[in-house]
Automatic annotation (TrEMBL):
Native species: Stieleria neptunia
Family per similarity comment: Belongs to the YicC/YloC family.
Domain of life assignment: Bacteria
Domain Endoribonuclease YicC-like N-terminal per the UniProt entry, residue ranges: 14-172
Domain Endoribonuclease YicC-like C-terminal: 189-321
Gene Ontology molecular functions: hydrolase activity; RNA endonuclease activity
Transmembrane segments: none
UniProt-listed InterPro entries: YicC-like_C (IPR013551), YicC-like_N (IPR013527), YicC/YloC-like (IPR005229)
Known cofactor(s): a divalent metal cation
Keywords: Endonuclease, Hydrolase, Nuclease
Name this protein carries in UniProt: YicC family protein
Length: 321
């Protein structure tokens, strides 16, 4: 049995949105068992199921969950095993006796002989409104029971968060590996990109020379160089490379819990999934621009590899809180 604790440390690190948590603890009305299951969700969605003893506390329990979980679809179930001698349902003797009197009065008024062998179905009477009531504590007792159950909920949340952080750590490691892969590809593009203008100059000069040879004409080399320069300006991807490098550094900093200048962020408890998803969108935009600007075959092939890596990262990031 997991022991319930009263406090929960602030969330930190990278968390997955999927996980399970369970805890159990004793209360004044019996043993409470809490089970939590979470899956991916763009926002926060919490479904709470409680026994009659805690009926009406769903909103309070959800507020406890909101203090520690930011995203995901959460299913929380609370089960109660009553102490020996206690029953989950109480019979209201006054209401039951009233139903019996009414039944006997109706029999007399209808002319049924009181000595006739007519019996009342007690099981049927038990299902009438007001006969059975949940064993709900009242007043200060209800608040005390809720606080006891709250500690069990927090213990289950601790177990859930531990599992989500373990899975998140593995996902963060994979994402950092993809970042290194993309960075290596960007360095390759940085080397190959200047060759595009020279390759264009060679192709253009060869075509021009073939055409001029047919008409026995000449072209001013300055005009040829001017055309090459115009192409070089259009095909220049240095700005895109700089921005992509910046996005990569920011992405890695967020994963490591650092500020962009490399300092550790202390006490971070905010979810990072949305921020990482936005950074990935910017990375894809810059990569797409590089691919559309450059006509270099090797650069185009590298751009495809970068897009594949970014797509892998996008799928993982969508699973992060």
């Amino acid at each position: 049995m997991t022991q319930a604790t009263s406090t929960l440390a602030p969330a930190c690190g990278i968390r997955s949105m999927t996980g399970q948590g369970r805890a159990a603890g004793k209360t004044d009305i019996g043993t409470v068992t809490v089970e939590l299951r979470t899956v991916n969700n763009r926002g926060f969605k919490c479904s709470v199921r409680t026994p009659d003893s805690l009926s009406g506390s769903e909103a309070l329990i959800e507020s406890v969950v909101r203090e520690h979980l930011h995203r995901g679809s959460i299913n929380l179930s609370i089960n109660l095993e009553h102490q020996q001698g206690q029953t989950p349902v109480q019979i209201n003797d006054t209401v039951l006796a009233g139903y019996i009197r009414q039944c006997k009065s109706a029999m007399e008024q209808s002319g049924v002989d009181a000595d006739a062998n007519v019996s009342l179905d007690v099981a049927a009477l038990m299902n009438l409104p007001g006969v059975q009531t949940g064993a709900r504590p009242k007043g200060d007792d209800a608040e005390k029971v809720f606080q006891q159950a709250r500690r069990v909920v927090i213990a289950a949340l601790e177990n859930l968060i531990e599992m989500r952080e373990q899975e998140g750590a593995h996902m963060a490691e994979t994402l950092l590996g993809d970042c290194e892969t993309i960075a290596a590809h960007v360095r390759a593009i940085e080397t190959l990109a200047p060759q595009a203008a020279e390759s264009y100059r060679v192709r253009l000069e060869a075509k021009v020379q073939r055409v001029l040879a047919q008409y026995d004409a000449e072209v001013n080399p300055v005009d040829l160089l001017r055309e090459v320069q115009v192409y070089a300006d259009k095909a220049d991807v240095s700005e895109e490379i700089t921005r992509l490098d910046s996005h990569l550094k920011l992405f890695q900093a967020v994963l490591r819990g650092e500020s962009p200048d490399g300092d550790k962020q202390s006490g971070r408890d905010e979810p990072v999934g949305r921020k990482l998803d936005f950074i990935i969108q910017e990375m894809f935009r810059e990569t797409n621009t590089i691919g559309s600007k450059s006509a270099h075959a090797e650069v185009s092939a590298i751009v495809v590899e970068i897009k594949c890596a970014i797509e892998r990262m996008r799928e993982l990031v969508q699973n992060l809180e």
